[in-house]
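Practice problem: Unconventional myosin-Ib
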Amino acid sequence: MSQEGEISLGFYIVHQSGFRGQHFQFGGGTADSKMEVKMSLLDNMIGVGDMVLLETLNEDSFIENLRKRFDHNEIYTYIGSVVISINPYRSLPIYTPQKVEEYRNRNFYELSPHIYALADEAYRSLRDQDKDQCILITGESGAGKTEASKLVMSYVAAVCGKGQEVNKVKEQLLQSNPVLEAFGNAKTVRNDNSSRFGKYMDIEFDFKGDPLGGVISNYLLEKSRVCKQPRGERNFHIFYQLLSGASDDTLMKLKLDRDFSKYNYLSLDSATVNGLDDAASFRTVRNAMQIVGFMEDEVQSVLELVAAVLKLGNIEFKPESRVNGFDESRVKDKNDLKEMCELLGIEQSVLERAFSYRTVEAKMEKMSTTLNVAQAYYARDALAKNLYSRLFSWLITRINESIKAQAKTRHKVMGVLDIYGFEIFEDNSFEQFIINYCNEKLQQIFIELTLREEQEEYIREDIEWTNIEYFNNAIICELIEKNQNGILAMLDEECLRPGTVTDDTFLDKLNTICAEHQHFESRLSKNSKFLTDHSLPHSCFRIQHYAGKVLYRVEGFVDKNNDLLYRDLSQAMYKATHSLMRELFPEGNPAKVNLKRPPTAGFQFKASVGVLMRNLQTKNPNYIRCIKPNDKKAAHIFTDSLVCHQVRYLGLMENVRVRRAGYAFRQLYESCLKRYKMLCKKTWPQWRGPARDGVEVLLTDCSVPSEEFAYGRSKIFIRNPRTLFTLEERRRACLEDLATLIQKIYRGWKSRTHFLLLKKSQVVVAAWYRRYAQQNKYQKIKSATLVMQSFIRGWKARNILRQLKYEMRCKEAVTTIAAYWHGNQARMELRRLKTEARNKRAVSVIWAYWQGTKARRELRHLKKEAQEKHAVSVIWAGWQGTKARRELRSLKEEARRKHAVAVIWAYWLGLQVRREYRKFFRANAGKKIYDFTIQRIMQKYFLGLKTTTMSPMDNTWPARPYGFLEGAHTELRRIFHLWRCKKYRGQFTEEKKAVYEEKLEASEIFKDKKALYPSSVSQPFKGDYLEIQKNPKYQKLKSAVEEKVLLADLVNKINRANGKGSPRLFLLTKSNFVLADQKTGQVKASVPLPDLTSVSVSTQSDGFFALKLKEGSASASKGDFLLSSEHLIEIITKLHRIGTTAADRDQINIDISDEFLVQFKQDKVCVKFIQGGPKNGNSAACKRKNNRLLEVSVPSSP
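Answer key — structure tokens:
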């Protein structure tokens, strides 16, 4: 991986007074006012940032450089493009979002060494150059491999695109880590969170660089840990997390107990680990499984299998003698066996038989043999290991189904390999053998790819390539993996050979075939030089790996390679009704019996490593070598011997030698010229020609010997680090001179600026003084003028007053004379009018007498005509009356005849009724008629009541038909109302009753007191308006609140400064209420309800309310809360109800007033509610009037 050194040329100007100036950038750049300098690989180095630049290369200088950087918290160092990471065993402030932005889109060598630089280089190569990448993370247990892989994934997630779907994919990829760590990590003596499996994740990206999904592969889970753990170590985390973090109800369903000592598979000496909270980790795992996409029934099935493994370890056996003299195993206590069978859905007798008998099939024959106690324990442990390892593989497959890319187009791929490092223990077995074999293969591909990269760069830059001598570990790989004579092939052959097969026969075969191999050592081999080597026990063999010699104890090689599970147990598992068992044990299907032996563990691992190597060779590699500084897992401790041991087996020295075999340093011409151009007058301050010509002029002027460098097509190659350091020293001295020059210029500019400022200030001061003097003089003249004006105006006013008074007296005299004259004239006119009126009256009287005489004559004439007409009318009226009386008499006679007939008919009907009455009602006739009448009346009455509805709200009731039913009518109405209320209440569920009780309590609190209350009656109290239980957006907030959430709503927190509201999430539980940020879900305040003393609201239709806290409490440090909500009635009702039902706290007071006080920190502010006009809209508005008054304008009701 070729890198260019983009070096930032920048510095600060520092005055003697300590003033820090601005950061100046040369080479055409602009001035940067940031108060931080981006340090490059060569600026202010602590030790050497790149091991290739070590002047003296040996183990001592290598270790000393690592120690020096580690002591200064520099945990990352380069070897070219390889990153060395030392575990600091403590948190360092170098992984912040600011650091991510600092390394984003930066050149690899532009900043100080960091894992983010490698992750950014890999991501940009994948995104921009369309090159598939892989990041290989190696190191021994406790070196920080898992954390390094997390940092790489978190960086890539931070710098790639955004969007709802992209964020979901990133979250699923990141959340797969807690699940795999719970089931695949364990506490060891070297590491509290040691990965006990190898993991390779392919992250797939689209053409924009956004993640689409991923695929995870696992290698060699250490399943032997399920049954047995070394002293001081634990089983896998999930067992302890389940027992510590699961609820009592969950443990009861899984038939488990929290006591670790009750389970044989759990070691007790390290059951609890400092710094690990198993209960919290279990909640994290459950949440991560939900985010990844596990269904609830799948999670329950997984936990049932984990519980089954624990129960399986408690099954113990006892011998039972048979007639033929052989011992047969029997289960001691069948309680654990019964509970395990209930968890998995297996018949107890089937599993019990599988632990006691073994069926052997050969061709068409079957033979059943008994198992002794030792074989039964072996079968039990084999079943436990297989069950757990297959469950782990199923988890990997299930996670892959959720995180795999959905698009069918071609994807860009970045692989992250987190695999075990080289292991050398006191007791090394089969697991260490294949782990070290995998590391040999990784070392082989590492050297090959590094050499190929170096050679390609030399050819690309047209630099002569010389062959580099290095140790090729292909001979060790062939010793292990050769098809016929390799150790793995001989182990498989020995496992498949008929007859007695033991670990000793396998060792004998190795001694025979591999005796002459230069990297194989055994005391029993034909090579005589090892016969007297007492450091080599008889039951061991030793291989000289690239990292050193490793002694392997041959005991257990054959059994671990066979990894056999009896067919009876597989078939018993297949018969289970559990949802996962048939998927985990497909070979147990009786319809698909396969007599062929399954592939051995060594064969499977060799095939997996082969696929991994082919996969890695198709990608551009990036390496992270993790080193553990000490065995105590403590900070600030650097053990030289331990680090030296890891440097050797990681092959770091070999890597440095390969890297610096030709030229130790190379850099683009543009970058080199930009960094060192100030060393030559011809190139400073700006070179106008090609960059290569500028570098040639620069090196010639600096008198650098020609054998110390070579010119490539685009880069300058420097052979010796000493040459580079000489250039750096000269550059540093030149920068000091330039800084002095700039300081001189800056100080001169500052002095001139200061002088000009003083001069300008003097002119301004003089102008202001002259203005001030003139203003004073003007004020004095103005005052004198005003005094003189006032005296003159007074004299004029008095003269005018005297003149006006004289004129007024003259006008009054004229008015009096005119009044007397007008009075005389009026009296004369009055006398004239009276005379004229008397004359007119005499004429009117005469005219009236004449008109009366005329009218009386007309009246006598009219009376005479009327008398003549009246006589005719009287005669006609008499004749009409006679005719009418005759007709009346005729009608009366006819009516009398009809009435007589009706009377006779009525008498006859009465006679008939009396005869019938005497026939049927001889005795008690009156009572019977009364009873019959009453019965019919009551029937009709009750049928009339049938029309009444069953609604308790219906107040209608039929009117009583008869007065004697008054008492019964009222009592029936009361009884019927009580009965239908009871029927209506019987339909209520407990949840509905609680809602109506809250509605009733809200009525008692707010009815006729709060104008908002009537509109809330028809709205049901929902409680959780945010759906916090279902919405994945609030999972973090849900995990922070441990109790059941009674109410979750969005409210506005009113700011005292401007009266505006900020959206907050309001959560109410039985013991406290919580305010959280709407976007991030971060908890802003959590207040215990005992600290809440009262709630204040207004009488109007607004949603404002104040939560007043107890003075002196911890929650009251920032003052009370003024909030607004659309569900005010429900919030305050629930608060009041919680305070009423709780016996350990006082009842919360509800204050309903249009003016109340709210405590904000140290000040009390009055909140006043007023009626607003139409301009205020439909919602209440809060405004700040002054420092002590907030005014809420509430729109008037229509």
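Discussion: Residues 1-39 have pLDDT under 50 and may be disordered. Students who identified this feature from the tokens alone can consider the problem solved.
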